[in-house]
Design goal:
This protein is of the alpha+beta class. The protein is about 65% helix and about 15% strand. The chain is built from seven helices and eleven strands. A six-stranded antiparallel beta barrel has the order 1-7-10-9-8-11. The longest helix has about 120 residues.
Length: about 550
């Protein structure tokens, strides 16, 4: 049994085989080799970067030109010609140009479908002008003589009727004013009576109040005099007793000093014990006198202060009693004043009510009088106006008719302007590059009807990298090439852009940087070069600017 267990233990701790050790060594060698390869690759990349930087620096220092991709464009860019905003949603009724046609400034490009409707509006406005001119001529011709007499009679009738009505209403107003004066005088007399009564009662109560106040003042002064006497007596007693206490304390201090000396003499045997006892008894007697004097002082102060407290209480009681009588008198005065004021207010309210009622009645009568007077005056004025209208030609009527004619003419002119907007015209001379909207189609709001370009003068827009823009100056010469045309184009740098953006012209090189930041440089082509590429708008080109 023991031999088997020992055999198992030995087999359990048996060392690994040669295959496992070989695998471990191989893995270690692979890891080490891969690490050396990575290090060599990193060093190689760094060497390539350094060489590229050296080459770029050498090339930049020896460059004589700046190259860039670009595009051809006419002078002033391409114009997208559209209809006016007022014609939004219109259709093309007639298109008068095709791509490649040359147009002059002001030439009709297209006719909108709003032309016929606006033409009808213009004709209607023309007829309205003629109608207003006829009305003006009619007013200037005048009226018949037979109507003038009848209208004068109508004016006289209106004047008589107005006079009768105004006289009747005037009498009614005078009656109401007299009645209001009588009512107001009676109410004012009643108010005066209540005011006199209130004055008498308030004067009586004020006299009673003055009596109570004087009585309170006298009693208060008597008690305050007594209080002042007691306080003076307290101060005198306190001073007297304090002097007595101080004297006794001084005697006690002297006796204590004498007792201390005799004590020392008694201890040395210079004096007898009975002599020392006599001195000590004198000290005790002095202490007793001081205590008695302080007790007398305290008792005297307490007695006088009690009298002062009682006197103050008496003063307070009399003051409160006097104030109570005064307050009661004031309350009576206030009550009578309020009662009298209430009666006066009531009488005043009655007076105001009668005044307002009378004024309201008078206002109504005056309003009626004014209304009838105004109505009569209006009727008279209307009759006179009719008479004037019949009798003469007023400048105002002529001016109004003339203004109507001018308004009709302005409406006609507006209709003519609206009609002109139905014709889309070329803003500049140039060539039709592209037609976006054909006859019968709704106008393309984004691209317009046609694209126009002033191709007599062409430009090349070069997209120069922001790192090269510092080398470019206005006036530098440039050459433009492309596989589309033979030879090269010549031009001069005319304008350098002020804004940095992304490239618009893409290179066919798949490794090119499409997100590069560039600045647009406009190059004005020479006349001969412009004629050569006049029909190649937006052509991608390569631009080389001599620096």
């Amino acid at each position: 049994m023991g031999k088997e267990s020992r055999a198992k233990d030995k087999s359990y701790f048996k060392p690994p085989g040669r295959g496992v050790i070989g695998l471990a060594i191989a893995a270690t060698l692979l890891t080490t080799g891969f690490g050396f390869w990575q290090v060599s690759q990193i060093r190689k990349a760094e060497e390539l970067k350094a060489a590229a930087a050296t080459t770029a620096a050498t090339t930049a220092s020896t460059r004589t030109s700046v190259t860039a991709l670009g595009r051809l464009t006419p002078q002033g860019e391409v114009i997208k010609l559209s209809a006016p905003s007022a014609s939004e949603g219109a259709r093309i009724e007639l298109l008068k140009v095709e791509e490649g046609d040359r147009v002059s400034q002001g030439q009709i490009i297209a006719v909108l479908d709003t032309r016929d409707r606006l033409q009808a509006i213009l004709q209607q406005a023309d007829k309205e002008v003629k109608v207003k001119q006829a009305e003006l001529a009619k007013i200037q011709a005048g009226a018949k003589t037979g109507q003038i007499g009848a209208q004068k009679a109508e004016v006289a009738k209106s004047q008589v009727q107005r006079q009768r009505e105004t006289e009747g209403e005037g009498a009614n107003v005078a009656r109401l004013e007299a009645q209001m004066r009588r009512d107001i005088e009676a109410a004012q007399a009643n108010v005066a009576k209540f005011e006199a009564q209130l004055q008498r009662e308030t004067e009586a109560e004020r006299a009673n109040l003055a009596k109570f106040e004087a009585q309170l003042q006298r009693e208060t002064e008597v008690q305050q005099a007594k209080l002042a006497r007691l306080e003076a007596q307290v101060r005198g007693e306190i001073n007297s007793q304090n002097a007595t206490v101080d004297r006794l304390k001084a005697e006690l201090a002297n006796a204590q000093a004498e007792e201390q000396r005799n004590k020392e003499l008694s201890e040395t045997g210079a004096i007898s014990a009975s002599a020392y006892d006599t001195k000590r008894l004198g000290v005790e007697t002095g202490r007793q006198k001081v205590k008695e004097a302080e007790a007398i002082l305290e008792k005297t102060v307490q007695t006088l202060r009690q009298e002062i407290v009682e006197t103050k209480a008496t003063v307070k009681q009399k003051v409160e009693t006097g104030k109570q009588e005064i307050n009661q008198s004031r309350a009576n005065l206030k009550r009578k004043s309020e009662t009298g004021r209430q009666e006066i207010n009531q009488a005043t309210a009655t007076l105001n009510q009668k005044r307002e009622t009378g004024r309201e009645q008078i206002n109504q009568a005056e309003a009626m009088l004014k209304q009838k007077a105004e109505t009569g005056a209006e009727q008279i004025n209307q009759a006179k106006a009719t008479l004037d209208q019949i009798a003469e030609i007023r400048p105002e009527d002529v001016q109004a008719a003339q203004a109507a004619v001018e308004s009709a003419i302005a409406t006609k002119q507006k209709a003519q302007v609206d009609l002109n907007l139905s014709y889309v015209k070329a803003p500049v001379s140039g060539y039709v590059l592209k037609v976006h909207t054909r006859q019968g189609e709704r106008i393309n709001t984004q691209d317009g009807i046609v694209e126009l370009g002033r191709t007599d003068q062409m430009y090349a827009i070069a997209e120069v990298y922001e790192t090269d823009i510092a080398k470019v100056r206005n006036g530098q010469r440039a050459t433009v090439t492309s596989s589309v045309f033979a030879g090269t184009l010549e031009g001069t740098v005319a304008r350098i852009g002020k804004k940095i953006g992304k490239k618009d012209v893409l290179n066919t090189d798949p490794a090119a940087d499409t997100d590069a930041r560039v600045i647009e440089v406009r190059i004005r082509l020479d006349p001969e070069s412009s004629q050569k590429v006049a029909e190649l708008t937006n052509l991608q080109v390569e631009v080389k600017i001599a620096i």
